[in-house]
């Protein structure tokens, strides 16, 4: 609670060891607040929370000793060199330099930053800084890695490199808890996820389960021109399970997209462009949380 405002309103979930678990939601949904409570840096006002069979409110230092944290904004020390960021961070856990020096080499190799070990952090690209932040968060060999919007601001190539690094962590048995509002990221990384909005869980399950429950197998996208989309939508009544009119296109949700498109043609409608695609997690997300902008 922040005054009378409930940022997280009684959400209930469990994460299994070795699982990659996602919290998906728009800005302001309560994702980062949840992560801060898990990490023991924000006290909850009610409910129960157990991390590795410990309550972070009572045993915060013990919980944090087993956590790796990748915050939404990189908080690297830009005056230090790349390797020094890892070593100095490890000292906060009381780890000796005899352990940290070889450990930093392992983590630099994992993050593909060996060639940048002696560089000042300020000289790194955004993708390199993000990989260094993740490598730093692994210095204490955490059982759980918390990643808050891990690829925000990265270009597609950097995002895919980062996904590969995280996938390797998951294969090695590290539990990942990821917040994101990128649907493709959630589908790539998460074994299971919850969709959160206004501090409450809207849906939960595997990506495939959520698509099956809240959308159709396929989606047909039709473009008649922005001035005609609203005019022709009544003529599409009964085509597919449901229709949605957007400013630039009409979406037809159907289990058989090609059959739905053929029916559009039989009704004498000729869109400027048409596309049949598989339904995605983004379709689920927008149906559950709406299309209006959230500040």
TrEMBL record:
Residue span, ABC transporter domain: 1-223
Domain of life: Bacteria
PROSITE patterns, A to Z: ABC_TRANSPORTER_1, ABC_TRANSPORTER_2
Short name of one Pfam family: ABC_tran
Gene3D superfamilies per UniProt: P-loop containing nucleotide triphosphate hydrolases
SMART domains registered for this protein in UniProt: AAA (SM00382)
Alphabetized UniProt keyword annotations: Antibiotic resistance, ATP-binding, Nucleotide-binding, Transport
GO cellular component, one term: plasma membrane
GO molecular-function terms, A-Z: ATP binding; ATP hydrolysis activity
Location in or out of the cell: Cell membrane
Topology versus the membrane: Peripheral membrane protein
GO biological process: response to antibiotic
Coiled coil: none
InterPro entries: AAA+_ATPase, ABC_transporter-like_ATP-bd, ABC_transporter-like_CS, ABC_transporter_ATP-binding, P-loop_NTPase
Family that this chain belongs to: Belongs to the ABC transporter superfamily.
UniProt-recorded name of the protein: ATP-binding cassette domain-containing protein
Organism: Ornithinimicrobium avium
């Amino acid at each position: 609670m922040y005054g009378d405002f409930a940022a997280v309103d009684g959400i209930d979930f469990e994460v299994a060891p070795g699982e990659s678990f996602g919290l998906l939601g728009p800005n302001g949904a309560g994702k980062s607040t949840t992560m801060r409570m898990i990490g023991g840096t924000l006290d909850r006002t009610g409910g129960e929370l157990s991390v590795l069979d410990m309550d972070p409110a009572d045993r915060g230092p013990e919980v944090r000793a087993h956590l790796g944290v990748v915050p939404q904004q990189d908080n690297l020390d830009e005056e230090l060199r790349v390797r020094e960021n890892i070593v100095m961070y490890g000292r906060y856990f009381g780890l000796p330099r005899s352990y940290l020096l070889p450990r930093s080499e392992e983590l630099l190799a994992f993050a593909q930053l060996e060639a940048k070990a002696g560089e000042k952090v300020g000289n790194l690209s955004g993708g390199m800084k993000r990989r260094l932040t993740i490598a730093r968060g692994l210095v204490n060999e955490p059982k759980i890695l918390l990643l808050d919007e891990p690829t925000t601001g990265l270009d597609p190539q950097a995002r895919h490199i980062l996904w590969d690094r995280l996938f390797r962590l998951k294969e090695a048995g590290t539990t990942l808890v990821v917040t994101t509002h990128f649907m493709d990221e959630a589908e790539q990384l998460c074994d299971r996820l919850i969709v959160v909005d206004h501090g409450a869980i809207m849906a939960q399950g595997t990506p495939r389960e959520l698509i099956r429950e809240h959308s159709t197998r396929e989606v047909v996208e039709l473009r008649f021109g922005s001035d005609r989309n609203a005019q022709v939508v009544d003529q599409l009544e009964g085509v597919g399970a449901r229709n949605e009119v957007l400013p630039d296109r009409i979406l037809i949700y159907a289990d058989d997209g090609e059959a739905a498109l053929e029916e559009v043609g039989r009704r004498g409608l000729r869109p400027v462009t048409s596309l049949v695609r598989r339904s995605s997690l983004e379709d689920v997300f927008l149906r559950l949380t709406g299309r209006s902008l959230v500040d």
